[in-house]
Amino acid sequence: MAAAIARFFDSDVWWSFKRSPVTVASAIVAAICIIGAALAPFIAPHNPFDLASLNLIDAFKPPSWAEEGTAEYLLGTDDQGRDMLSAIMYGARVSLLVGLSATLFATLLGVSVGLLAGYVGGAVDGLLMRICDVQLTFPSILVALLVDGVVRAVVPREVHDQIALFVVIFAIGISEWPKFARTVRGSTLVERNKEYVQAARVIGVPKLRIMASHVLPNVVGPVLVVATLNLGLAILAEATLSFLGVGVPPTQPSLGTLIRIGNDFLFSGEWWITIFPGLALVAMVLSVNLLGDWLRDALNPKLR
Predict the structure, then answer these.
(1) How many helices and strands, by DSSP H and E, does the chain display?
(2) What residue intervals traverse the membrane (predicted)?
(3) What is the average pLDDT value for the chain, to the nearest integer?
């Protein structure tokens, strides 16, 4: 373990990371967002979803630096008296959970399909890639809305809230897997004709083992880049679904839900209810996207 860490700090990737101020700043912002979301139950000033602690008298309080603001609520409160800073931290937990889970699901499905299509080829490749082509003609958010709507129509209404989080993860993941499949398939087509793969075939190694043990490790680089960039898109997709009212339930509000709630009061003067969750969403997605751009360049040997 220590040797692996030492090799990493002596690698070109770490050197590229250190010499890019934008990447370092993005990593710091992303770390703040992740740590704040993960530790929200321990470091948040209030529990915004504890009904016993809410007081409607505290509703619509402006940020602490405003004329009527108080130090107790740094970023103000919403229409129910919930502390906005705490609500953002708890909402970021849901957004990150959905984004990471949907990206992991899309990665597993897309990598499996891409490996199979690229290595087997023939009719299997043609069928799987035509499915990808058809799905890529539709916007991802439209596919997610369609899947979410179908599931809600099939599942009984009384269990909607219980499974809403899983439905959103599945809907976003199933709409993003073709990107991974096309990327892995292209890399697999290159790798399957190399000597080490042919040698494995000659000695009788099973196809599944060749794909998992020989081809997969050599196509991980592009997958990491696509996954990093896709994480930001997944978080945005979740925020969009929640803003439209078909995402996570109100009892588990994400940043998209908070923005939707604040949008109702934007023109009545309570701008902080929607602006601060929006800024948190922008910071989170922008930092992840910048890290993805850096990772793409760092793993590209032509740019070294």
Answers:
(1) 13, 0
(2) 21-44, 94-120, 215-237, 271-295
(3) 85
